[in-house]
Structure formats: C-alpha cells, structure tokens
Design a protein that fits this description.
Helices cover 24% and strands 24% of the residues. It is of the alpha/beta class. The chain is globular and about 75 Å long.
C-alpha cells in the first residue's frame, strides 16, 4: 500500500502488484483483505470505485457517442469543416462532509450545487474551505442516483471569460458529491435530508428540520448557468430549496453569491417581493436591471457586504481574496492540505466546427448565392460561451434557406473582428450537440452599427453570451431597427432596454424559466411554457430551450 503525493496535491491510495496497474483499478479486494485495512483506507477504496462509476455513467473519456436525438449531432460531426480535437481534462473530486462526520456545534458551510457550474469558482472555493479545515457540505435539490450522487462543472466555459482568463485554470472539471438534499418534513417544515436517507419516492423520509441548532452558518452560490438551473427546478414556485434558503435567511445565516449566483437568492421570497429586497449587492457587471427591478441597491464596488449578504459581481484576480475574506474564509497560514478524494485525467474528443470556413462565409458574414451586397441581413447575436446547439441550428437554418446573415458580438471599442467560441457540453446524453463546439468569426456590434449593413431581423443565441450583450448601446440600436426578433433560451436577456421589452410594445415572449427574476418588470408578458416550446406574438418569436431552436428558426 503506497500513498502518493502527485504534483497536483491530492493524497491518493494506490495498491500495486509488481508490474501491474493499481490493484483498486483492476480487481476487487477480497473481503478478507479489506477487513484488515483501517476504516479510512476501506472508505478510500470504495470512493475510488464510486469515482470510476461516475465517470463511466456519463461516458466521459470514452469514444464519441451520439446523443439520444442524433440528427443535429450527425450534421455537425460529419461536416467537412469539423475537426476532432483530442484534449486532456483533469477531473477533481470533492466529497464534502456527510452528516455522520459533522459537528453541528461548530460552523458548517453549505455550497449549492448542480450540473454545469463554473469549474474555476467551484474548485478554488472548495480548495480554500479544505485548506482552512472548515466543515462544508454540498447542498442540492436532488440526488442523482444513477451516478453515485455526483454533479460536475463545465470545462473552461467561464462565467466572465475576460476576467477569469488570466487565472491558470484550463481544462479542469470539478465533481462534487451531494451531502444533503433540500426537502421538507411531513409537517411542511424546511429541512435537509442526508444523501443516504434521501428517497425520491418519499421526499419526507429522513428529513431533518432547520432549527437554530441545525442550520448552515453560510450558504454559498457560485455563478455560471448552474444557478438558473436551480431557479427553474428547485427554487421556483416555493420549491424545497427556496424554503430552506428562506428559513436560513430568517435565522441569520450568511449568504454568499458570485455573479449569477445572486439570482438564486433574488428568486426566493414571493413573486411580488424578493427575499433580499432592500439590500445592496454587487451584481454581474452587465446586469444593470436585475437589482433595480427586484428592489435592491447596486453597489459601486465589485465586492459588497450588506448585513448577512456578501456578493461579488464576478470572479477575477482582483475580487477572489476580497470576496473570500468578506465571507469569512481568509487564507489559512498553516499547512496546506487537500480534501479532494480523487483525481483522474481523461482523454476526451471534442468536435469543433470553424464557421469561418463554411462555404459562402466572408469574414463574419454569410452571403446567399442569389443575394446582392447591400440587401438586408439577419443579425445573429453570439458571444463567448454561447449555446452550441442554438448557434448551429440558427446558422444551419439560415444557410439552408439562403438567407444572408452577419454574426455580431458585443462592442469592442476598436477591434473590427473578434473570434468567439461556444460552450462545450460534456457527458449529457440528452443534449443535442454533446461534446461539440463552434468557433465563430464575429463583427463587434459597434463596428456593425457603423458599417453599411442593414438588418431587418435578428436572432439571439442563449447560453452565457446574452450577458456579454446586455445594455450594449450598439446591440440595442440594431435590435430597435429590426422588424423581426427571435431570441432563444437565455437570449431574451440581451433585449433589456430594447423596444421589444418596453411597455409601449407589450409583446408576449418566452425564455428559459431559470432567469425569470430579470423580467420581474414585465412578468405579465413572460410566458412560462414547457421546455422546448416556442411562441409568437406579432413579430416577436421566442423559444425557451436549446431543443426549441430548430422549430423557432423554422
């Protein structure tokens, strides 16, 4: 039995036979041998098995596998301009602390989790908590039974690419194991249910009600798109997570939010009034309307503390230490340790389509064969970390219909061209373009605005790209000059301030329900629909999920 200390830091148990791979990876220990090991070593061996099963459950590191609905995936992967890129991803696993290991007389900190979180924010936060020796737990709205209760983050798809790009954190995926599930008791009291006691068929089983003696000292929500998943699934309609958060707020726990993580806390309370109304906060840099429409005050600083609410507008070298210190997690001056329970490097394949080399593309513009330059174009608003399914479906439809278009990103203030890259969704068999991304040549909106181009219509892709476009005067001017609008999923977030969401033009629309708090000022027009549906009101066409894009474009 050998304990290794690799350069990345985790201590990992490896059992070896001479000339063979680690024993734990090749054969199961006999019951007789296992009983001779200390309980801590037995637990480590079992965790190694759980980690291997979690990776296998999502097909991560295996050959390319088409999604359940493969049509769009086959179209992109067989395109002559698509390249297959082999990448190495470091997978770090954090298990938190289960109920039987916690001392509730001491502070216990809760980290809200789900799929597609920001790996840098989650990983650096958990490493800080571990280094300090803090008690922390992963809090979820459900416990994925099929993969051993693990969630995992996105890979290199950061919430704020411009600010986070200077931090060395590339091609890393962070896995977090559920410790507690938000629930209620049979009497309706907000509660936390330990993972091993959670029963999807009996949601009250094992529920432990929140009390002054049994509560989290801090609740932390990181950014990215993960918070909106929580808003849509377990916070909306007074869901179990909303009840748990509201009870903790009442008991005086500290609430810590990064970027879009604030949206989860804003979504708590009632439709008429947010739980955190009246407080001051630092919101994501472009979300000017979020605080105003939810009765909050905007801080002039990137990190803000107001009572029990601590917020950072974004994650960057200038905000990390300020936020962690304000939240009560300054650096530990003692020995640095790691609470990772495992680490794996996986070799993965990504199908990458360079849109700039598609037939008919001239820079960021596609000219239909029969079109003449100077005729109206469709503006397709895209930016970094856009949803690849939505981008590819829109572009494919316009090219098939021989409609000329220009790919437009946020204003640059000087640059005449910008290349942006969509996100890459790994390990989700239901996602239409799993393991795929698009590289897009774009014209900044201010450059497009000054050009001779005329736009009679526009699409807005979702993902995180609308937040790069929000409140951009040139983007709004192009939208206001168009006669037809078509946002999909989060795309409607880019239309704040445009004529399409003003009271003078009260058109109904739909969008991903997880971002509803941004539209509190026009909720009478925000239509909640089943995921994948579309709607039309006059010249405003909208869809609420990636799988609605094909129907929306048609």
């Amino acid at each position: 039995i050998v304990v290794l200390r690799p350069p990345l830091g985790p201590r990992r148990l490896v059992l070896r036979r001479a000339g063979l791979k680690p024993l734990a990876d090749t054969v199961a220990l006999s019951a007789k041998l296992e009983c001779l090991l200390k309980p801590s070593l037995r637990a480590l061996l079992r965790m190694e098995t759980l980690i291997d099963r979690a990776i296998a459950a999502h097909g991560i590191g295996s050959a390319l596998v088409p999604p359940k609905v493969p049509e769009l995936w086959e179209q992109l992967t067989t395109c002559p301009q698509t390249k297959r890129l082999d990448i190495e991803v470091v997978n770090s696993f954090y298990a938190g602390n289960d109920d039987d290991r916690l001392d509730w007389s001491r502070p216990v900190h809760g980290v809200l989790i789900d799929f597609k979180g920001d790996s840098m924010q989650v990983g650096m936060l958990l490493q800080r908590l571990a280094e300090r020796g803090d008690q922390y737990v992963m809090i979820a709205g459900s416990s994925p039974a099929f993969n051993g209760a693990w969630h995992f983050t996105a890979v290199s798809d950061f919430e704020h690419p411009a600010e986070q790009g200077s931090i060395p954190w590339r091609r890393m995926r962070v896995w977090t194991r559920v410790n507690f599930v938000c629930s209620t008791t049979a009497a309706g009291e907000p509660a936390l249910t330990p993972r091993d006691a959670f029963d999807p068929g009996n949601k009250h089983a094992g529920a432990k009600p929140i009390t002054p003696e049994f509560r989290l000292s801090s609740i932390i929500c990181t950014g990215g798109l993960m918070p909106h998943t929580l808003c849509a699934t377990v916070v909306a309609d007074g869901g179990p997570m909303a009840k748990v958060l509201e009870k903790h707020f009442e008991l005086g726990s500290r609430f810590v939010a990064i970027g879009h993580g604030l949206d989860v806390f804003v979504a708590c309370g009632s439709v008429e009034r947010s739980m955190v109304a009246g407080l001051q906060a630092a919101a994501f840099p472009t979300q000017r309307q979020l605080l105003e429409v939810n009765g909050m005050r905007r801080s002039g600083e990137a990190v803000c503390t107001d009572g029990q609410l601590v917020t950072a507008s974004h994650w960057s070298p200038s905000t990390v230490e300020a936020l962690l210190s304000a939240a009560g997690f300054p650096p530990n001056v003692g020995e640095v340790t790691s609470m990772r329970v495992g680490s794996r490097s996986t070799q993965e394949t990504v199908c990458s389509l360079d849109v700039s080399v598609l037939p008919g593309m001239e820079g960021s513009t596609y000219y239909a064969p029969e079109a003449t330059k100077g005729t109206p174009l469709t503006a397709v608003f895209v930016d970094d970390v856009a949803d690849p399914t939505e981008v590819f479906a829109i572009i494919s439809h316009l090219r098939a219909r021989q409609m000329s278009f220009m790919l437009v990103s946020h204003s640059a203030g000087g640059d005449t061209r910008r290349t942006v890259t969509t996100e890459t969704v790994f390990g989700n068999p239901m996602y239409p373009l799993r393991d795929c991304c698009c590289v897009l040549p774009t014209t900044p909106a201010d450059v497009a605005r000054r050009s001779n181009a005329v736009f009679d219509s526009f699409f807005v892709a979702g993902g995180q790209c609308p937040y790069a476009l929000q409140h951009d005067p040139a983007v709004i001017a192009i939208m206001d000059g168009a006669a037809i609008a078509a946002p999909v999923c989060h795309g409607a977030e880019a239309m704040h301030g445009s004529k399409w969401l003003t009271s003078e033009q009260p058109l109904r629309f739909t969008a991903y329900y997880g971002c509803w708090v941004s539209f509190r000022y026009c909720l009478d027009r925000f239509q909640r629909m089943k995921p994948g549906e579309t709607m039309r009101d006059g010249a405003l066409f909208s869809g609420n999920a990636p799988n609605s894009t094909v129907a929306l474009a048609a």
